[in-house]
Amino acid sequence: MDQSTQAAGRSTTAASVPPPAGRGGLLGPLVLLAALAAIPLLGAGYSLQLATDTLTAIVLAYGWNLISGFTGYLSFGQVSFYGLGAYTTALLVMHTGVPWYLAVLASGLVGALAALILGPIMLRLRGILFALGMLGLARILSVVFNSWGFAGASIGLSLPAELMPVRIYYATLVLALAAFAINALFVYSGFGLDAVSLNEDEEAAAALGVPATRVKVIAFVLSALLPAMAGGLVAWNRSYMDPTSAFNPSLDLQVVVFVLFGGIGTLWGPFLGTLILTLAGEQFGVSFPNLQLALYGVVVVATVLAFPGGLTGIANRFGWLRRPIVHAARGLPQAAPPPAAAAPPAGGKLLELRGVTVRFSGLTALDDVSLTLGEGETLCVIGANGAGKTTLFNTITGYVAPTAGTINYKGEPVTALPTFRRAQRGLARSFQIPRLMPSLTVWENVLLAARHGRQAARAQAHAAWVLEVMGLTPMWRDPASRLSPGHQRQLEFARVLGLAPDVVLLDEVMAGMTAEEREVVRNAVRRLPQYGVRGVVLVEHVIAAVADLCDRMVVLDFGHVIADGKPQEVLADPAVVRAYLGEPL
Amino acid sequence: MPSQRRPWGASSYCRGALAAFSCLIGLGGVAQAAKPIVIGTTVSETGPLATDGEYQLRGLQLGVAEINAHGGWLGRKVELKVYDDKSSPGAAVRLYQRLITLDKVNLLIGPYSSLVTVAVAPLINKYHMATLEPGASVPSIYVKGNTWNLMNTADSTTYLHQLLPLAKQHGAKTVALLGLESAYSLACYHARVAQAKELGFKIVYQTTYTLQTDFSSIALAIKNAKPAVVLECGYYPDSVNLVRSLHQQGYAPQFMGETVGPVEAAYVKALGPLANRVYGNSGWWFNFKTPGNAKFIADYKKMFHAEPDYHAAAAYTATQLLGAAVEGTHSLDQEKIRQWIVTHKVESIQGPIQDNQYGHTVGAVQDRVQIQSGVLKLVAPASLAQAKPEIPYTGN
Amino acid sequence: MLALQLLVNGILLGGLYVLVAQSLNLIFGVMGVVNLAHGAVIALAGLFTYWFTAHTGANPLLVLPIAGVAGALMGALGQRLLVEPVMRHGARSELLSLLVTFGLSYILIELALQLFGADFVSVPDLQSSWQLGSLAFGKALVVAGVFALVMSALLYAWLNHSMSGKTLLAAAQSPTGAISCGIDVALVRMTAFGIGVGLAAAAGVLVIIIQPVAPQTASDLTLLAFVIIALGGLGDYLGVAIAAVLLGITQSVAGYYLGGNAEYILPYVLLLVVMVARPGRFRRIR
């Protein structure tokens, strides 16, 4: 699957929302809120119960949307937190007599705490494994509570609760508003940008300094907090909780249907999808009880096949409900170049590899490689395909842990440092095939790199400046997936500058470019010192394109360094010529 | 109609602009017709409880049809308003709320299964609706504070209660007891454990289990414990699996009892000869000499082209009981109906039903049936028995 | 003796697991798609078997080829119409295919409810055991296990030693590469999905002989099958067979000494333990 089809696929789904940003007035939401607040006036009976249940489903949908929509970790087990929350409230009310609202808050706390403990473990899994791992977790909890006498075992717990439908309704409404606000945070903030970047390409995000584990654990904790509190409210409202209802997997499956239908990874999708499907489902279920399941099934299949963006996706086509561009909703911020760097320490090595060896199950990709990058130096690494160039990059940037050897960066050992920390410290890389965040705009792609380790206003000014330098300002609001291949490479390069790096590693950055595009990049490379870059490592296949940029040249052959020196000397080395088997150098 | 429990008249649902919104999305109620008396209920038409729910629904439908054939109640026709609760406690809560506040039904009959009933109980007690419960046999529902749930069947602690005494008569001294982790079956299981101790049985194996499908290890453990009696409180699938696994491990106890599984028609179909001589229990049976029983069976067959079971009988009983209370009090007042039911003994097709002050049916027991050559026969109590128990269980 | 019988029971249970899981594994291995409608197919085929034998009095094993072929045809058709369209979405196709098959499972479960009702049913065939000394071998489980073993062996041989099988694997490992070699990848995927669904349907015929099945069993079967292939290694046919048997033995022992609840919960606990202890083994999934 090549990058462009991949991008095309993404741009029609999930977090993709084509700019420009819509300007939603505040009137609509306020009317909606007033209407929701007025529902109890209709009476405290069935309609209120239905409204409460619908709001509960909206809370669950928004909770699920955080981890599975924005962050891209599809979970089939968020009901675990719902159940934990329900039991927390039930047990607290029964045994301690705390007021219900405190019990519900405690439920949220328990849910969040459980997610904080489980998150780092479960979120190491990806894709289907995470989804079904969570389902397995819910299954385990259900069995535990089904046989745990203290929690009423299979008979469940009946609470000595008074029924207070109006208060419960307003509590649920408040919770739903909080859920909406948290989702809005994901849409409007840089943190949300981080989360979406994990959804788009977690590995590339690490190279931009995104602390993946922290971001996804926070998203997970928030997406556990909401259902846990919802569960607490439901337990109190029903005055009853049993393991079958508490850990009912179909609750999650329903939420998946709702969010998907409304638009996954969007701000309004969970609300719209849940509202329409619960109300339609209620009417449909009353009239044709036997067909409701099938209806859900058809909704899911039709949504995925015909309009993957859901209702929000359709609305977007008409210019409605588009998400704002993060930190540039009203236009591009003022550009400003980075502040002049403090005078670099003279004579220090920027990068120093000593005896680095990398083995993959028997295959030695790098064998005892030692090399250095000096202050102000441009080092070119050349070699045939399979010589180990990309592995070298991956090792320096922390994607691959060396089997042996050490890596020092600016005089400090970084061998054990995770990728995102190296990136944040100014050790930047580009990828051979650009790994952009396809549904994010050009601006957001750069901002993503700029925002870590930098104060917000400074980060925005820096990102705007990078766009200017790289000539990408005219297309700042285009989604990355819509760029021409040449512009995509420029954007990849721009993201590297977004980090305001000290050392830049460029992986075949000019491959497949037209002459003019290449010239833009060559100029950019020449200007790198002006942008504060103190050292450059270029990996290039087309040596002619870079030879005049190099201060020094290293040749890799089957994981060995076979030459290291001035470009002209290296290119004349018979060993190098032999390694290239007569390829034109 | 006791208006203090439903302070919002039907017309108040459509008030002003908000009401327009509410009516648009279908919340607006249809004003209830003054004429017929409406009984509201939910039934598990789908989901895991659908099989038994279907019997319960048919019992209600038959009951209402017969009431109307005899001119209804208080000179008014009787209507049944049924929703599908999908076997889900949560859905049932909302649907009962709908029945009470939106549909404004006159009377309620409870859902199927103790689990769903427990979930609905707070609502019923809040709205003070006298609710007959044909499908909830767990005694813990009918206690102080939950006095509006009115039981009309034997409770689950009486399931298979005559099996251990029978086995003791025939010299059995050891028993293996199994209970599925669900509300009704655990109540049954604990009652049988206590009974076994009381009768001086040695419990050589006991376990509770979740809805699993592999019983080979449990069967092997039972085989090694060599009990004379194996008694399981469970549902249909685990009943079938246990009998099969015991057979495969090569063990046949003298007495094999499995509460409600064997009573289902699918049991013999699934197990064939292995089902012979297994005991089950039922709160009602075809040969009961109770008033109206023969007619109930005949009408049921005519209406549904199938045989009734004890769920259908219990549901039918609920309509009988409700009818007796309505006619007896000449009213639809919930408090009067409740009072009437807890103070009167009613002859039903299941036998006499008498509830105590908490709505718990006292004195009624589940009777024992046995599969003999592929046919279910009542074997206890002796006064009604169609056949003598066939002993021992052979497992083929 | 006890230990041996526990071992036999465990191995037989493992055989049932291979039967239930291997077809899901095939589809995943070739397409990277977890078919969430897997359990619904098994349940539908099982319920059909019950219905068919109840009306004709035929031996349920006769249904095996019918269900297999019908399942394969419907699977191929379903793949072409519903799953193939989302295979073009690159990295996203995993998520999208998960959602499509999830929706499909709802539809199939509803179909089963409408056609066969909500009841649990089973058929009274092969209920007894073959005795070897004092060891008992449940007949239905032996038949299912042998079928699963033969199926796994044939799959393995076909994928690794025949031209068409190698084509399948090639398409699985590198769709782009396969396209450039002139392989019709879409056709390959349709074939694999068809075979997978056909085998799942055949498994359904055997499952209903072993234990009662109802439409609601579908999601349990899917989850169980997934847990097994996750434990054995997704796309690894031998690994799944080994894991299934080991799981069966562990459950057999746990059930004997710790009781029903422990046995039931064990697969999920093991899955989580393996995920926590060896996350690396799940890394290649992406």
Structure description:
- The complex is a heterotrimer of chains A (585), B (396) and C (286).
- By secondary structure, chain A is an alpha/beta fold.
- Chain A has two domains: 39-317, ABC transporter involved in vitamin B12 uptake, BtuC (Orthogonal Bundle); 349-579, 3-Layer(aba) Sandwich (Rossmann fold), CATH 3.40.50.300.
- In chain A, 54% of the residues lie in helices and 11% in strands.
- Chain A contains 23 helices and twelve strands.
- Chain A has a six-stranded mixed β-sheet, with helices on both faces.
- Chain A is elongated and about 90 Å long.
- The two termini of chain A are 32 Å apart.
- Helix content of chain B is 38%, strand content 18%.
- Chain B has helices spanning 16-24, 50-69, 89-102, 114-126, 163-169, 183-198, 216-225, 236-248, 265-271, 293-304, 310-329, 334-343, and strands at residues 37-43, 78-84, 107-109, 131-133, 149-151, 174-180, 202-209, 229-233, 255-257, 278-282, 345-348, 351-354, 367-372, 375-380.
- Chain B has 396 residues and is of the alpha/beta class.
- The longest helix of chain B is centred in the first third of the chain and has 20 residues, at 50-69.
- Residues 1-33 of chain B have low confidence and may be disordered.
- Chain B folds into two domains: 3-156 and 289-354, Response regulator (Rossmann fold, 3-Layer(aba) Sandwich); 160-259, Response regulator (Rossmann fold), CATH 3.40.50.2300.
- In chain B, the strands form three sheets. Chain B has a seven-stranded mixed β-sheet with strand order 7-6-8-9-10-13-14, with helices on both faces.
- Chain C is an all-alpha fold.
- Helix content of chain C is 75%, strand content 3%.
- Chain C has a two-stranded antiparallel ribbon.
- In chain C, strand 1 (129-132) and strand 2 form a beta hairpin.
- The N and C termini of chain C lie far apart (46 Å).
- At the A-C interface, helix 1, helix 6, helix 11 and helix 13 of A face helix 4, helix 9 and helix 11 of C.
